[in-house]
């Protein structure tokens, strides 16, 4: 199924050059030659989106929002890029009252698939362990991008009871298994590494990286000092996982890398 197809795509095709820019929290802009993807825009203190859109007036823009939390969704996205062809991929938990009537919107719940987006893009919605969904974006050429939204192993050993910790692990494992059964590998993955979780901050990321072959990994949703999230040497990863994945630390709004 999906897993075999995506695994084959990644080994058959050379992925496209793309520029990835950190906006804030879990917000990223991914620039392809003929389309721009903007994930979980919350704010953009470096004004990267406006500057990029000014320089690329003919490139369509797809805004993707994983859920309704205010550090992932900002109605400003409906005012950005007004001279561009704009499309919106939104999770179904976003209140309809936030939406302009004339906006080209695809609503998504877990299990939904959207086709027919610019450049032949497909978007698959997977689940979350918090609100909304996570997204897999697939290009015909083979590029695949996974944005986890708030999918993570959310628990705090110091605050949660053993039963709560076990429930969190079970929820995350169930959703990760669903995803890994469908996806063999991804070119780019954005995943929460929230330093408020202390020594467990990378636990979800470690499990994700072990279950799915990620070419380029970007931690996000730091909620505090980024250094711990970016201390990749402390991630508990098997050697073969560390060898197959390039880890990127974009932590200051406006940080960018070409992959």
What key phrases describe this protein's structure?
259 residues; alpha/beta; seven-stranded mixed beta sheet
Structural commentary:
With 259 residues, the chain is of the alpha/beta class. Helix content is 23%, strand content 26%. It has 6 helices and 14 strands. It has helices at 2-12, 48-55, 162-182, 203-211, 226-229, 239-244; strands at 19-24, 27-31, 36-39, 61-65, 86-91, 105-108, 113-114, 122-126, 134-138, 144-147, 185-192, 213-220, 246-247, 256-258. The strands form 2 sheets. A 7-stranded mixed sheet has the order 6-5-4-3-2-1-14, with no helix packed on it. A 7-stranded mixed sheet has the order 7-8-9-10-11-12-13. Residues 8-13 have low confidence and may be disordered.
């Amino acid at each position: 199924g999906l897993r075999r197809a995506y695994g084959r795509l990644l080994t058959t095709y050379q992925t496209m050059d793309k520029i990835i820019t950190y906006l804030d929290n879990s917000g990223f802009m991914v620039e392809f030659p003929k389309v721009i993807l903007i994930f979980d825009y919350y704010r953009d203190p470096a004004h990267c989106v406006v500057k990029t859109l000014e320089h690329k007036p003919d490139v369509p823009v797809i805004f993707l929002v994983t859920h309704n939390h205010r550090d992932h969704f900002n109605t400003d996205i409906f005012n950005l890029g007004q001279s561009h062809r704009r499309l919106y991929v939104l999770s179904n938990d976003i209140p309809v009252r936030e939406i302009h009537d004339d906006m080209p919107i695809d609503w998504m719940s877990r299990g939904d698939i959207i086709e027919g987006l610019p450049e032949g893009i497909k978007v698959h919605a997977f689940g979350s362990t918090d609100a909304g969904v996570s997204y897999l974006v697939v290009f015909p050429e083979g590029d695949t991008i996974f944005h986890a939204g708030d999918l993570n192993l959310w628990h705090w050993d110091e605050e949660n009871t053993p039963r709560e910790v076990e429930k969190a692990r079970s929820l995350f494992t169930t959703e990760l298994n669903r995803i890994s059964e469908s996806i063999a590998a991804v070119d780019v993955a954005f995943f929460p590494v929230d330093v408020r979780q202390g020594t467990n901050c990378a636990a979800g990321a470690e499990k994700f990286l072990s279950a799915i072959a990620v070419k380029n990994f970007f931690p996000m949703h730091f909620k505090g000092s980024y250094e711990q999230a970016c201390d990749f040497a402390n991630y508990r990863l098997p050697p073969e996982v560390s060898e197959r994945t390039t880890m990127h630390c974009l932590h200051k709004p406006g940080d960018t890398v070409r992959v």
